[in-house]
């Protein structure tokens, strides 16, 4: 029954994982199928290959945030030093 709902009305996505600002993983509330955003911004089935790509993307993304935070901290240290 649930699968028919997806076929007729389309999947009922919710964001199950936030990979980067542009890439997210989605799960369908009805059939529990997983999807993701591909490099062109389209929603596509979350295959093991895409899971791997998202894992790497997520790691790079997190590293960038950590780097930005470190930079901010060192800037703050400089400011503190000036005073
Ligand atoms: Zn569905």
**H and E order:** HEEEEH
Instruction: Please give the oligomerization state of what you see.
Output: single chain
Bound molecules: zinc ion
Radius of gyration: 19 Å
Low-confidence stretches: none
Spatial order of the strands forming the largest sheet: 1-2-3-4
Mean pLDDT: 90
- Number of helices, where a helix is a run of at least 4 consecutive DSSP H or I residues: 2
Task: Provide the domain count.
Answer: 1
Q: What is the number of E strands? A: 4
Q: Helicity, in percent?
A: 40-55%
N/C terminus separation: 68 Å
Sheet with most strands: 4 strands, antiparallel
Sheet/helix structural class: alpha+beta
What topology emerges from the helices and strands here?
Blueprint: H1 2-9, E1 13-18, E2 24-28, E3 34-37, E4 43-45, H2 48-82
Antiparallel strand pairs: 1-2, 2-3, 3-4
The protein binds zinc ion (ZN).
Please tell me about this protein's structure:
This protein is of the alpha+beta class. The protein has one domain (2-82). The protein is 52% helix and 22% strand. It has helices at 2-9, 48-82, and strands at residues 13-18, 24-28, 34-37, 43-45. A four-stranded antiparallel sheet has the order 1-2-3-4, with helices on one face. Strand 1 (13-18) and strand 2 form a beta hairpin. The longest helix has 35 residues, at 48-82. The radius of gyration is 19 Å and the shape is elongated. The mean pLDDT is 90. It binds zinc ion. Zinc ion (ZN) binds at residues 6, 11, 28, 30-31, 33.
